[in-house]
TrEMBL record:
Residues 572-588 have a biased composition (Basic residues). Residues 143-155 have a biased composition (Low complexity). Residues 142-167, 457-488, 536-588 are annotated as: Disordered. GO terms for cellular component: cytoplasm. Keywords: Membrane, Transmembrane, Transmembrane helix. It comes from Obba rivulosa. This is Metallo-dependent phosphatase. Residues 85-209 form the Calcineurin-like phosphoesterase domain. Gene3D superfamilies: 3.60.21.10. Residues 543-564 have a biased composition (Acidic residues). GO terms for biological process: polyphosphate catabolic process.
Length: 618
């Protein structure tokens, strides 16, 4: 029979169907594989091999960051030769050492401006940290910030005798340990106000996966925190060794809470972070308890602290971790780097133009609306020999301030809070690290570039120049033989200084354009201040010890974390139990250093006091 007339169901037709089946099955298999590997749309259908993803609560932002604050000429006070600016390194709650240092400096709240370089809190004693925070909160600008909206102060749960309001100003930047306290406090204020529906009355008591009874339900965050804090303290008393790991205790408590009313509360408690945030959100640390123990006004003060203080009159910054002069992922001469060209004054806030100390003679030459080309600015104002010295200096000053603000604004790393709080070095890849043993210390990077600054009249950088040009402010060693030409060519900028903390392992780190003040007071070493005063040339001086080295042992003592201080008139006076008239003064070290622009007249001195040998409390 001809093939076209073969009946349906004949052997030839069956053979064709059979041959198609393997192709269909193969196509189904391939489609299923692609589907499973997410190479095709899922259309919302659950994957057969999908694992249940751990849900995370979408928390509000508890970081409360304030990037920077400008301290103006009147606030820093150095125009008055009788006034000083005192910058102090990491205190870490060493309240007695702080006041020993202030005693040594004859600190006067009416004459001196204090600036703390971060990490005022944590790692020593609870009472000491709160005493330092209270000292900060009692002075301006915190004293104004910490007032409640009604203009009255929120009383502490257990009121203590308070110092009379001080007229001096005490500034501070946030440190990485202060930041962890900020996070816990902001979270705590949010959590304690929460209310959740209670289980149906009369329902059987709930049990967790391991049979642990959940206990009587609570309906507010305040009640739940009180409950778990009590349970934690109970377990520590029962088994100090077994319950010593608070993170493990919290993890077990979370797991036991699954399926009970407690789970909803634990869901709203942050878990320890990872990566950059690996030090954040650890339960029942001293950061946690400080967040609980502070008053409302102390919390407002802590929240108000910026990451960076900028003092444009003296051209320096204060930051806890560090700052970068350029984006290390690009060449220093890249047009996107703020030091590679004179600043664009269009981006300058208007308040810079009305600063009293930057007044121009007659009509100001610079306004945001008339000078848009920074090359023209450099040519017309800086290189114009017909301009009077006063006008030229004031114009250069404007550019200098604009450049400093561009460093804060235009370098991505300087807008990153983690970098400002934690940076210790920069790796070859340009990545920032907090590991002090890796990469190049950021302060070396800063000093190398500041040494290349040749003034705004240096003009734009030309990478095609055959020979390097020495910077106007550079040190000879920066331009030693063998340096790469691109690393020593001058830049059209003026140098600025950074004062910082955070690097106790490096000790007193005094370089030409950076001063590291963390000298390890927490570890029984020293607490150091940088004292600035307007006066004659600040030249270098040799180190001076007030006492012989063999007398150092007398400073060994226990931490005194009380706030035994009072004001007598305008002077700070410390009360000591059993103080004798012939008691020896604190062991101190003093050394003059060069600070700021060589054309300036600021005298700078480093002063350190011995801290008690308390051991490593980290």
């Amino acid at each position: 029979m001809p093939l076209l007339h073969r009946p349906r169901g004949a052997p030839g037709g069956q053979s064709a169907t059979h041959r198609a089946i393997p192709f269909v099955l193969c196509a189904v298999f391939i489609f299923g594989l692609v589907y499973e590997l997410q190479l095709a749309p899922t259309f919302g259908t659950p994957r057969l091999t999908a694992t249940k993803q751990k849900d995370r609560y979408k928390f509000p932002d508890f970081n409360r960051y304030i990037h920077s604050h400008t301290v103006n000429a009147a606030e820093i006070g150095l125009d008055d030769p009788d006034k000083r600016a005192i910058l102090i390194g990491d205190v870490h709650g060493m309240n007695k050492s702080l006041h020993n240092l202030l005693d040594t400096l004859n600190y006067s709240p009416t004459q001196d401006t204090l600036i703390l370089a971060g990490d005022m809190l944590a790692k020593s004693t609870h009472a000491g940290s709160l005493a330092v925070l209270d000292f900060l909160a009692q002075h301006e600008p915190c004293a104004s910030t910490s007032r409640s909206p009604t203009g009255t102060r929120t009383p502490a749960p257990n009121p203590k005798p308070r110092l009379p309001p001080a007229r001096g100003r005490v500034y501070a930047v946030r440190g990485n340990h202060d930041h962890m306290v900020v996070q816990w406090r902001a979270w705590r204020e949010w959590f304690t106000a929460l209310e959740l529906a209670l289980p149906v009355p009369g329902a059987p008591e709930q049990t967790g996966p391991d049979g642990t009874l959940a206990g009587k339900p609570v309906g507010t965050g305040q009640e739940f925190l009180a409950l778990i804090e009590k349970e934690w303290e109970r377990d520590v008393r029962r088994d100090p060794q077994g319950a010593s790991d608070a993170d493990e205790w919290a993890d077990v408590a979370r797991k036991r809470a699954v399926g009970t009313w407690r789970a909803e509360w634990w869901f709203r408690i942050p878990e320890p972070g990872k990566g950059r945030a690996k030090k954040d959100w650890h339960m029942f640390t001293d950061h946690y308890w400080l967040a609980k123990g502070m008053t409302q006004e102390q919390a407002r003060c802590l929240f108000s602290l910026p990451l960076v203080l900028h003092v444009p009159e003296e051209h320096f910054f204060v930051v806890h971790g560090g700052l970068l002069p350029s984006d290390p992922r690009r060449p220093a001469t890249d047009e996107r780097q703020p030091l590679a060209h004179p600043p664009d004054l269009d981006l300058l806030p208007e308040d810079v133009f009305v600063e009293d100390d930057l007044d121009l003679e007659g009509t100001p030459l610079l306004t945001p609306s008339t000078h848009r080309d920074f090359a023209a600015i450099a040519q017309h104002i800086i290189a114009n020999s017909e301009l009077s010295g006063a006008v030229k200096n004031a114009s250069e000053e404007l550019l200098h301030v604009a450049q400093e603000r561009a460093v804060l604004r235009d370098i991505p790393q300087n807008r990153d809070a983690w970098v400002l709080l934690n940076m210790r070095g920069v790796r070859k890849s340009g990545k920032v690290t907090r590991d002090g043993d890796r990469g190049t210390p950021w302060s070396d990077v800063w000093n190398r570039q500041m040494d290349r600054c040749a003034g705004f009249d240096a003009g734009a950088v030309d990478d095609s120049e055959p020979a390097p040009r020495r910077g106007r402010f550079g040190s000879p060693e920066t331009y030693a033989h063998g340096k790469d030409e691109a690393d020593v060519s001058s830049l059209p900028c003026l140098p600025s200084t950074v004062v910082y903390g955070h690097a106790a392992s490096r000790g007193l780190d005094d370089k030409r354009w950076t001063v590291g003040l963390d000298t390890g007071c927490l570890y029984g070493r020293k607490l150091t201040a940088l004292v600035l005063r307007r006066g004659s040339s600040s030249g270098n001086g040799a180190a001076e010890d007030d006492e012989d080295d063999e007398e150092e042992e007398e400073e060994e003592e226990e931490i005194d974390d009380g706030a035994d201080v009072e004001y007598s008139g305008s002077r700070l006076v410390r009360r000591r139990k059993g103080t004798k008239k012939n008691e020896k003064k604190h062991k101190t070290w003093r050394r003059r250093i060069e600070f700021g622009d060589e054309r300036g007249d600021v005298r700078a001195e480093l002063v350190s006091v011995k801290c008690p040998k308390t051991g490593n409390l980290s």
